[in-house]
Structure formats: C-alpha cells, structure tokens
Protein: Negative regulator of beta-lactamase expression
Organism: Aquiflexum balticum DSM 16537
Amino acid sequence: MVDPLEIPGMKDVRMLLKKHHSKEYGYRPIKSVTYIAIHHSLTKSGSAEAFARYHVATNNWPGLGYHFVIEKDGIMKWCNEIEKSTYHVGNSNRFSVGICLTGDFRTEKPTDLQWKSLNTLTKWLMRELSIEPENVFGHSEFSGYASKQCPCLDMDKIRLSLKEKKQPSNKPFNFAKYYPNPTGKIYRLSELFSKINHLSPPELKKINPQLTSEATTKPPDVQIQPSPEAPISQEVSSEISTYIRMMEKEGYSINYDDSKDYNLNILGLRTPNHIPNKFDDSLVVFWKFNGTWHIKKYKITTDPGTGPLLNLNKKGNSNGTAILKKGQYKDSHIIGYHKKQYRALVQANPVTVIRDNNWDNILDFDNGREFTGIFGINIHRANEHRESQQVDAWSAGCQVFANPQDFKEFMDMCTKSNLEWRKNFTYSLINV
Ligand SMILES: [Zn+2]
C-alpha cells in the first residue's frame, strides 16, 4: 500500500470532500497505475473542496475527479485513494493518477510553491508506482485530448527536470530494528503496509522471524512508564476519570496534552464474559482540548468470532486464533487499509496475542501461548451498510466495530488527530 502521508506537508482531505449520495468510483489494482496526468483547474482560484463540490453537484460525478490537488499556496491535498479510478482523462482513467494545480495557466503561471510541490509529489509517485518520466503527461497529451487546453505547461521541460536528478530513496522504515532479521532486508513503510494487509502464515513467519523458534517466542519485557502527574481537571466527567484511574492502575500512559484538538486516548474495554460471536465490548475514545475533556464510546468486539475459532485456525494457523492480550501498545496503529479495501487503523508496531489452540469455541485467555509481533491486528468495521449482530467471521483477533456509522465517526476523529498530532496511535486494552 502506498501512503501519500509519507510526503511532508501532504494533507489528507479524502473524508472532508463532497461525495455523490449514491455513486461511487470503482477501484483498480495499484499495479495498473502507470501514468501520471497533470491538470490545471482553469480557474484563477479554488480549492480541492470547491472542485469536489463542482464535480459532484454540476458534473454529477461520484466525487472529485483528481487524486491530488496542489493549491496556490503549494498545499498538497490527498483527495482520492490512488486505487480509485476517478474521472479526469476519459479512456485513460483506469491507468492514470491525476494531479490538479489550482490556476488558469493559459494566462498565468503556477506559483513557485506549486512548482515545488508538483516536483515533490510527482517524484514520490514515480518512485512508489515505478513510473518513468516518459509517462508523466499533461492532460492534452493523452489520446483524444490534443485539443484540450490543459494544463498549458511545457511538459517536455517538466519531464526533463524529472529525469535530471533521481530523488534519493525515501527514508527507510527500519523493520530490522523491531525484528532481528537474518536476511538484513530493510522494509519500506509502504512495503510493510502491503504485507500486513494480506498475511499468509509463511509471510507472517518471514516478517516475524523470532516466531520460527520456540525458544524466542516469549514476549519482551516492556517497561511502561506511568504518567508522572495526573492533572485531571474539575470538569472531567466521572466516567472519564474512571477510565483514567483504570489505565493508571495498569501503568498505561495517558495523553493529557490539550494544546491542540484530538490528542486521542483509544481504550478497548473487554467484558469478562468471553462469549464469542457477540459485540459485547466497548471502545472508548477520550481526549482533552483547551481544558475540556471529550468522550466517545462505541460497541465493538475485542475477541475473535466463532468462524475463525472453529475453521480458519484448523487450516490456517497451527498456533490457533489470535486474541489480543490486554496491554498498552505504544504507537501500535496507523491509518492504512484493512485488507487493501478501506481505511482503518492497521497494525504498524508489535502487539502481543494469545493464540487459542484447542478450537473448542470457548476463548481461552489463560491457557494459550503468547506471541509478540505484527499480525495484522487491525481496528476496523464489520458490515459496510448496517450494524452487525454476530461477529462470525468478521474478527480474527482484530478489534471490530459493529456499526459502520460509528466506525466512520471514529476514523474521522483519527484523521483529524493525524493532522494535529503524530501519525501513530497507541491502543490500550483493559479487561473489565
Ligand atoms: Zn485536465
């Protein structure tokens, strides 16, 4: 999975743009994206938000036609997943990623900041999608569009500048730091994403080499520093203070910094009756902003459904189904794609799971063996359209929302949090 948020200054506005009430763009495999298309907006001013409103309300399109918009101030906005086949170059839509610069370049030039951002974004796309400068086209260079006045830029000059100096490769994600890796391979973050979203047992073993040896499966001792002070203000509700006390008792750290909004604490509450197949747990999100605490609570399951318990592990994983162990997993999750399909919180750093290995339809928390690693323990939703009553095959150890609207609200908060705070989220799980 390529992640445009790796680009410094990129703003993720995908969830903030106007969309058609019923139409949706289709998806294509990322491998088929082999061209970069450059457009101008043909307007002196305007933003991704304004272009989206126009494409939906006037053109009756599913959403904004471009994948990225670079506004006059050089701000880069990520508007659509690259896998979405949006409308911007007709017959070439299915293999092109579209960048639009605000401006009317028949009569004006891009700003210096726009040139800089276009260069950064194009080079990043070329590298991530393995696209050569020869395949960076202006809109009018695509077949059938010779008469189109878009983007009115010297594309040969742009391609030449893209050829000149190959950008040094993106900062590598040092996977070996977390996993002593005999092959010494350094994984890039984007490679890691693609791995954790479709995990097969051999792949799991490959990226978690410590799991191959019985002797080294013991999770490392993690020292969690309790927060030095507990500045619970007067206005904190008794419910939030209960959660804060529970987390403190476990030695979990809590985000108190309220200088910007959405400094989220994400806490899973697992109920004592481990009945599989029920959404009987809760996910609590609370944060403080300008001295005031906020809280949201959602119905989730922290346990696997009976499907995975009974079936999948018999064929799939000889160690049994994964159940996330209670604990605080620092920086464990980031926004990514669940099974390459939709945005969710995906696992990016190690967590500890207990594998239930007697397949008896009862969740064993005390008898299973523990493993620490990257298993694709994501935080995602069940059914896309309606609230689910039965967990069934929805969860194989993931933390799963029953209600899609709840999940959308949760992801909106996470997106806003990403804009203000760090890329990573810490997930805490408590047995209540
Ligand atoms: Zn165009």
About this structure: The radius of gyration is 24 Å. Residues 166-201, 210-235, 306-320, 358-366 have pLDDT under 50 and may be disordered.
